[in-house]
């Protein structure tokens, strides 16, 4: 059944979404839920665990940070749903404990730890907390709200963690929906394979978001505190069409345009929809941190996010992970029947080009950075 809307209604819906591009993963414990389809994200995060330990052991002064208060606060910004964030926080606490023992060998008392989980107001914190271990040795709090704003008291945070969250834009650039703008992204849903003006609009919005994120953390964090950042990236100067996600976004856009031809959705729907996702190259990230001025860069490098992938990609499983993380964006804009059609066709389309996808997995697509509050 065709689900057509007028151009004005499509624009109205996208205007509302663009003001706050809230990303809502699928909560609960269902078949398509993020909690049951996020193992790829956990594996990518595990790649940097040893590097995080090395950075904390070298750069975090636990003795000084604990001298004014016996409470040591750790926060995960963009925590999502499921066990990944809890495992990451427990890994961090073990490393901090190790550093405390190393730096304060005569101390008889370990700091009291508080772990804070932050994400959008729509995040399923109820499901998240069902994954907490019964024997946890730390206090827990959830703080809903956009991490582009201050969400914690001033000078209260010692260690922050942000994994695969910064690439979500806070809002879509308005130029993408303006037919008079060179950045009007007609017939596409991302900057992949789009005109350079579209890429520039995305990059400009990310730079603003990064500055807001760092400024908020700068207010919350004590001097000497650290931020661990892991996320999507790309080597400086490389077109996004040469990486797996870029190829996938092009496929999504192509499928949606095919659905326009069958009457499942309207062309206005597609023209008004853009994925609020930006993979920041390290050069732009460094410029943003230096421009903000509140943090020094202790470590920054690009890594292979999937060194465990040896052989063919299981496309149906891969698409299930993608759907768990991205369905909320599509369902806010397109009818539910269209969502099923999109992801069903995505499995078929990616299966046809699986060898091309496999050839695109490479080093340099995961950013790892350690920032220290000045």
Automatic annotation (TrEMBL):
SUPFAM superfamilies: S-adenosyl-L-methionine-dependent methyltransferases (SSF53335)
InterPro entries xref list: MeTrfase_7 (IPR005299), MeTrfase_capping (IPR042086), SAM-dependent_MTases_sf (IPR029063)
PANTHER family: S-ADENOSYL-L-METHIONINE:CARBOXYL METHYLTRANSFERASE FAMILY PROTEIN
GO molecular function, one term: metal ion binding
Name this polypeptide is given: Probable S-adenosylmethionine-dependent methyltransferase At5g37990
Keyword terms, alphabetized: Magnesium, Metal-binding, Methyltransferase, Transferase
Biased composition, class Basic and acidic residues, residue ranges: 9-18
Keyword flag Phosphoprotein: no
Gene: LOC107919588
UniProt region (Disordered), positions on chain: 1-22
């Amino acid at each position: 059944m065709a689900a057509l809307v007028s151009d004005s209604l499509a624009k109205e819906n996208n205007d509302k979404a663009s003001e706050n591009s809230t990303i809502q993963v699928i909560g609960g414990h269902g078949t398509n839920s993020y909690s049951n389809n996020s193992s790829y994200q956990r594996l990518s995060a595990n790649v940097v665990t040893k590097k995080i330990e090395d950075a904390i052991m070298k750069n975090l002064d636990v003795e000084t940070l604990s001298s004014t208060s016996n409470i040591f606060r750790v926060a995960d910004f963009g925590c999502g749903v499921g066990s990944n964030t809890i495992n990451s926080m427990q890994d961090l606490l073990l490393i901090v404990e190790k550093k405390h023992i190393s730096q304060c060998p005569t101390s008889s008392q370990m700091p009291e730890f508080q772990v804070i989980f932050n994400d959008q107001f729509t995040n399923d914190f109820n499901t998240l907390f069902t994954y907490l271990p019964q024997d946890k040795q730390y206090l827990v709090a959830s703080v809903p709200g956009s991490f582009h704003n201050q969400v914690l008291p001033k000078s209260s945070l010692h260690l922050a963690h942000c994994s695969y969250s910064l690439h979500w834009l806070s809002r879509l650039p308005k130029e993408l929906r303006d037919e008079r703008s060179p950045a009007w992204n007609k017939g596409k849903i991302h900057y992949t394979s789009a005109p350079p003006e579209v890429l520039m609009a995305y990059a400009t919005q990310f730079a603003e978001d990064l500055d807001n994120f760092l400024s908020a953390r700068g207010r919350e964090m004590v001097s000497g505190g650290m931020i661990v950042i892991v996320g999507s990236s790309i080597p400086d100067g490389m077109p996004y069409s040469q990486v797996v996600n870029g190829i996938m976004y092009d496929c999504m856009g192509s499928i949606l345009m095919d659905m326009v031809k069958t009457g499942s959705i309207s062309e206005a729907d597609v023209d008004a929809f853009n994925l609020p996702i930006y993979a920041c190259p390290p050069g732009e990230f460094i410029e943003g941190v230096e421009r903000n001025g509140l943090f020094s860069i202790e470590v920054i490098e690009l890594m292979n996010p999937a060194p465990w992938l040896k052989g063919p990609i299981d496309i149906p499983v891969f698409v299930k992970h993608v759907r768990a993380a991205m369905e909320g964006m599509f369902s806010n804009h397109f009818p539910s029947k269209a969502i099923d059609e999109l992801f069903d066709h995505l499995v078929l389309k990616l299966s046809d080009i699986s060898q091309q996808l496999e050839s695109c997995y490479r080093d340099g697509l995961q950013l790892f950075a350690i920032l220290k509050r000045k």
